[in-house]
Amino acid sequence: MCRQLYVILLLGAQALVALQAQDAGKKVSEKDLAREKALAVIQQSIESMGGNKFRQVRAMQSKGHYYTFKRGQIAGIDKYTDHTRLPDKSRFQLGDGKNKEVTIFDLAAGKGWHLEGKEDIKEATADEMKLFRQAAQHSIDNLLRHRLEESGMTFFYYAPGAMSGKSDLEAVEMIDAENDSMLIYFDLKTHFPARLEYTTLEGRGSKRKEATEFSMWHSIGGVMTPLRFDNFLEGELASQAFVDEIVYNSPAALGDSTFARPAPEK
Question: CB atoms < 10 A from the CB of 185, how many?
Fold first, then answer.
């Protein structure tokens, strides 16, 4: 949609809230207006990324290159392969052959495993399962596809520059029933998500601030897709992922065997 239509969408959302409140004999609250503005921004972003094609993505299979950083310098680089089935299954492989590391999580089954090399298989610990659950809850794919209608979820809208200081970004904050906050910045021109910020709770209760920035957008099967992810920990660049290839709703990512306990290789 063009920028004019986007403005009309926002004004229409506010007008609808006002009319509903008027019919009910109530005064429109700023909280209600902020919620409707936030939802309008999210829906506009979804439409800009493919609308129903974006909504219908259930799984993805991708491969590319993964970089880790320490004190601003590259500390490691490797190839990766990822299978994800929304909202709660993941198989991530870093490297290949004897040096590969495979991590599998299936939250629905409450299971997870690590495979190093070809034989060393370990069960995921309770803390690792907890961290992956948080990662799934904070995933931009789950936030925009699975958590919008979640019971107890509240939404707040922040005008351009209010949170980031950048006039080309507006923001929406989603706070769930457990008071977990996710802040999403949207590009005013493209309406694509530009940055996601949240806090992760570690095993001992300590908190760490995390963020992901999305860029290098391309259309994949009619779905606008970021091919670069910059991940930050406490404000420092921690890792980058560059997608070389991605397929949506692939049989491998939809199949249960992909997320089962790995067997030692011969």
Answer: 23
Measured distance CA(223)–CA(112) in Å, rounded = 30
- Within its chain, how far is the Cα of 57 from the centroid? 13
Nearest Cα to Cα of residue 153 among 134, 181, 183, 174: 174
Q: What is the pLDDT of residues 36-92, one digit of tens each?
A: 999 999 999 999 999 999 999 999 999 999 999 998 899 999 999 999 999 999 999
> Cα–Cα distance between 105 and 132 in angstroms, integer?
7
Q: Name residue 68's beta-bridge partners.
A: 76, 239
CA distance 108 to 241: 26
Distance of alpha carbon 237 from alpha carbon 39, whole angstroms: 30
Q: For domain 52-259, give the CATH number.
A: 2.50.20.10
Is the pLDDT reported for residue 244 higher than 50?
A: yes
Q: Which residue has the tokens 């219908």?
A: 56
Of the listed ranges 115-124, 136-145, 190-199, the one predicted with least confidence: 115-124
pLDDT, tens digit (0-9, with 9 covering 90-100), for 197-217? 999 988 777 899 999 999 999
d(CA 262, CA 224): 32
Pair of tokens at residue 171: 């923001």
What 13-16 contacts at long range (C-beta under 8 Å, 24+ apart), as own/partner pairs, is 13/37, 13/39, 13/40
| C-alpha count within 13 angstroms, C-beta hemisphere, residue 223 | 19
**Alpha-carbon distance 134 to 157, whole Å?**
23
Give domain limits for the chain: 3-48, 52-259
Measured between alpha carbons, how far is 150 from 130 in angstroms, rounded to an integer?
A: 20
Determine the pLDDT at residue 3: 46
pLDDT at 2 over 50: no
Closest among 3, 35, 18 to 155, alpha carbons compared:
35
